[in-house]
Amino acid sequence: MTQPKQGDKVQVHYTGTLTDGTQFDSSAGSDPLEFTLGEGQLIPGFEQAVADMTLGEVRTVTIVADEAYGPRYDELLEEVPRELMPAGIELEEGLALQGQSPDGHPMRYTVVSFTEEAVTLDGNHPLAGQDLVFELELVAIA
What's the pTM? Predict the structure, then answer.
C-alpha cells in the first residue's frame, strides 16, 4: 500500500466537525484539498494524520487544540473605541475584520460585541481552543 512521504503532493477529501458534531468545513461537492506534506500549509495534526494514511484509506481523527489552532488567549480580546472602526462598516457579532497587531503584522479579528462607544474584538482564530474531528480520505499522492 502506498503511503505519502514528506515533500509529496497529496489530495484529501475531508469533513471537519467540532466534538459536538457541528460541521465547520468540508470538501464535499468540490475538488479535494491539495497540499504538499511537510510545508506547514495546514494545522500540524491534519498533516500528521494524512502522513500516517495509505492511498484510498478513509479514517476519522480527533486533533487536539494544541495540534490544531492552539489554545484561546484572553489577552487577544481587546476593546477599542468605536471611532477606530472603518467608516461605513455595519457592525454585527461574528463579523470578521482585517487589522494589524501592535507590532504591525496582519491579523484577523472577530467582532464579539459592541456599543455606541466601543467594540470588543477577538484576535483568536475562531477554532482556537477547540478539539477538531476530521473524516479524511486520501485520494491521490504525487
Answer: 0.84
